[in-house]
Amino acid sequence: MARLSGSGLFDDHVVYERPGSWTFAGGLLGEVVLDADRVHTRWPDRPPVTRPWTEGRPADALREAFAGVPLPAWNAYGWIAFEFAAPSPRGRLAHLIVPRVEVRAEDGRARITGVDAHETEQVAKLLLAEAESGAPAAGTPAPVDVRVGDAAYRAQVADAVAEIKAGRYQKVIVSRRLDISYPVDIVSTFVQGRRANTPARSFLLDMGGFQATGFSPEVLVSVDAAGRVMTQPLAGTRAFGLGAGADAEGREDLETDPKEIYEHAVSVRTSQDELYRVCDPATVQVTGFMTVKERGSVQHLGSTVSGVLAPGRTSWDALDALFPGVTASGIPKPEAIDAITRLDEHRGLYSGAVLTVSHDGALDSALVLRALYNRDGRAWLRAGAGIVDASTPEREYEETCEKLTSIAPHVVPLP
């Protein structure tokens, strides 16, 4: 996947990893770009179309755009910004491509599909050369110092706690941005970071000049072709990878801390309520409640909430119901999103989603956390913490440091 991304064969491409499966999507066969006031579509053998949209929800605009795909079968890959859920959104909200070439790797075998024989032959040659030469070199990381900006972030947390105690909402995720002072090698960072992480999903993308790579700790929403829906909210965090004794102590603290247990329980309950809106209520269930999930430099409390779509509902409805992730926004969501627009700066892809959606109704999306972002030669990291009335600025700042450590030590400069 790294060699395909760094090969220069495709300007726009997405790598998406699910358990046991890797997909590379390269080149533009079709495209949907959703801005705050317009939707742009481009399909083969048709002129590009730009039209305004001001009514309905962003998920409806995407649903309508993909309803017009002039292909019998297709898969699309891309990203959705956090502002997709904002009451008055601005900027780019989503960007998805239907690729010219797809490479799907499972069980040590790769299957290539595409519309251009010459392109697929080039990809096949590159994959054969990769198989002969072994793992790619990934450059030397230049670790990023995560312990900066503490005063400003602690003040944000204190403001959020005050608003919670005033009864404005129950929980909100407040984040901080960490700018990187040097140009980054996004592909090498992906390789180095993936070796050190155990994500639920991973991704690497370069679309329209915007690059990002990340190691998502949780599935935002996954819907199969039969309409089975699954989400995996994580909430509650302690450091991991400090040694067997320290990790076990952190796990015990995580499982017995009333603040962490409360934070996780209300997140699971919110996810359950959201699935009731789009699923047959009798099918909604919680499994693996409060199981500890190890994700790189941190461990979380995690649960799985699932259900079956009600008649007339689609994967777009499930995405709309669950986006943004409760563990990256807050409770109740409308009030938390309003607070984020006041307490945080524009988020973009952070706490949004990278996703794939298919012609048969299947959809899979990863919550974008533990990620590196790069545009116009400027790179940055971002991390947040869930704030409830029992939060302290000192502990929440420490939690952001723990989360940033999932990627900060693995950032590789451009040579």
Automatic annotation (TrEMBL):
It comes from Actinomadura soli. Keywords: Lyase, Magnesium, Metal-binding. Pfam families: Chorismate_bind. Its cofactor is Mg(2+). InterPro entries: ADC_synthase, Anth_synth_I-like, Chorismate_C, Salicylate_synthase. Residues 151-403 form the Chorismate-utilising enzyme C-terminal domain. GO terms for biological process: L-tryptophan biosynthetic process. GO terms for molecular function: isochorismate synthase activity; metal ion binding; oxo-acid-lyase activity. The keyword Lyase applies. This is Salicylate synthase.
